[in-house]
Design a protein that fits this description.
Helices cover 5% and strands 36% of the residues. By secondary structure, the chain is mainly beta. The longest helix is centred in the first third of the chain and has 9 residues, at 11-19. InterPro entries: KIB1-4_b-propeller.
Length: 383
């Protein structure tokens, strides 16, 4: 009989082995030999970088994830199987694998993997909250913030364990017509920082709410008084992966770009010259600063604006041993299997030019003329 080695294992046996392995082990499997590589189905790790999540079209429940790394849109069809309750809802924020949506007098919690939708009880507090945010420790509490009139806040907590628990009734601060007023930056986002919620106002003022002192509501801090920069149009608040409270300021056409950090001893905003190898994802109601091993992404600020709309791939989002991956729905997909893409050499390729980004310290920033912006999207980190 002809002698055969491991490289001659039947295709169906290799496929069965792959189903038992973590997604992150597939690249090593594919490097074994050409035959083994041919058995690896096309997939795209969902954890490789933060993703821009948006709806596929207005009023639809399909979710679309844009990957800055691959420059693809991964659309998950019927990802919110909720009987229509999530349709026409506004995307508010995300934490981990949970997405918060808001409709008139209704807040929704969506699990991004299972598609399960849970709704918090209705509230007659206002027609709608201006912001909805999860707590800093996960998705166990949601806070609704009214920022148009005097600042007010309410919260609801999950009853029970796991993702099957219900949401209890809202606990609201007492409405006070003479309460604190802050003119919030129109596109900014509330941020949990050191256990409290910070809300950024125009010119750099901050309002703070301590959930442990709920009845006191928001308080406007005496300092900082201003950013110290006059030329800016949009501003976003973000807590970094190192626990720093930062703000990102953009000019009317995208430049100039300033990244500033709150010096909490002096209570003053200070200019940030380098992100120390990290990438900043902003421009939505959820912003984040993340460490990245890809050199072309380091010290770069990403905004959800495109010069060329990326290709859309219809996928299933599959969980295996805690890891998530986008798997094309059609096995005949012409997309290439890749875990390192075109950036494995650490350089910036032509794809990077399709999404608006700014590298700190660059002398000439590309303006965003002709770019198309994604509205009602949020950055999510599915790591």
């Amino acid at each position: 009989m002809e002698e055969r080695d491991w490289s001659s294992l039947p295709f169906n046996v290799l496929a069965a082995v792959l189903e038992q392995l973590r997604w992150s082990s597939h690249p090593s499997f594919a490097l074994s030999c050409r035959h083994w590589r041919s058995a690896v189905p096309p997939f795209y790790p969902a954890w490789i970088t933060p993703l821009l999540l948006s709806t596929a079209r207005v009023g639809a429940a399909n979710l679309r994830y844009y990957s800055p790394y691959y420059h693809y849109n991964f659309e998950v069809v019927a990802s919110c199987d909720d009987g229509g309750v999530a349709r026409d809802a506004k995307i508010c924020c995300a934490t981990g694998r949970h997405l918060a949506l808001e409709k008139t007098r209704l807040a929704l919690d969506v699990h991004l993997v299972t598609g399960a939708v849970r709704q918090a009880p209705h509230t007659a507090y206002a027609d709608h909250f201006d912001f909805v945010i999860y707590d800093g420790g996960g998705a166990r509490r949601m806070f609704g913030i009214d920022a148009v009139l005097p600042l007010a806040v309410g919260y609801t907590s999950q009853i029970g364990d796991g993702d099957e628990g219900e949401w209890e009734d809202w606990t609201l601060t007492e409405y006070n017509v003479n309460g604190p007023r802050l003119r919030p930056s129109p596109v900014t986002n509330p941020v949990f920082h050191r256990g409290s919620i910070y809300l950024l106002g125009e010119h750099g003022r901050l309002a703070v709410y301590d959930p442990c002192k709920h009845a006191e509501g928001f308080k406007i801090l005496d300092k900082p008084m201003s950013f110290g920069f006059e030329q800016y149009h949009d501003s976003y608040l973000v807590e970094s992966d190192q626990g720093e409270l930062m703000a990102v300021l953009f000019g009317r056409r995208g430049t100039p770009v300033h990244v500033i950090m709150l010096n909490e001893k002096k209570m003053e905003w200070e200019k940030v010259e380098s992100l120390r190898g990290r990438a900043l994802f902003t421009g939505t109601l959820t912003s984040m600063v993340k460490k990245t091993k890809f050199k072309w992404m380091q010290n770069r600020v990403f905004l959800p604006m495109f010069y060329k709309w990326p290709e859309t791939i219809h996928v299933n989002i599959v969980s295996r041993d805690g890891e998530l991956a986008f798997v094309p729905k059609s096995s005949s997909s012409n997309t290439k299997y890749s875990t390192m893409g075109d950036h494995s050499n650490g350089t910036c390729c032509e794809k990077c030019a399709d999404v608006w980004s700014y590298k700190l310290g660059q002398q000439e920033a590309r303006e965003n003329w002709g770019a198309e912006r994604v509205y009602y999207g949020v950055w999510v980190d599915l790591h």
